[in-house]
Specification:
There is one protein chain. This protein is an alpha+beta fold and 73 residues long. A hairpin with a 2-residue loop joins β2 and β3. The protein starts with a strand and ends with a helix. It comes from Geomobilimonas luticola. InterPro entries: 4Fe4S_Fe-S-bd, 4Fe4S_Fe_S_CS, Fe-S_Ferredoxin.
């Protein structure tokens, strides 16, 4: 299992909702950011790190980011 968690690039996100549908842990939502919608991942230990969200993203707005506890090691 990967030590990285999915991170959304809000500038690239098209708010298509595919990550919301793909996440087996249901950690993604579409939120309003200024005048546009964007995907957001809830901060949770329930993330399976399967990256189904990243594979489903047509604009590649979701990429792996090290966990906060991994950064501090």
């Amino acid at each position: 299992m990967s030590a990285a968690t999915p991170q959304v690039d809000c500038q690239r996100c098209s708010a298509c909702g595919r990550c919301v549908a793909a996440c087996p842990a249901k950690l993604f939502t579409l939120d309003v950011d200024g005048f546009r919608k964007t995907a957001r991942r809830q901060v949770s230990t329930d993330c399976r790190r399967c990256f189904a969200c990243g594979r489903s993203c047509p604009v590649r707005a979701i990429s792996p980011a090290p966990d906060a506890d991994q950064k501090n090691r």
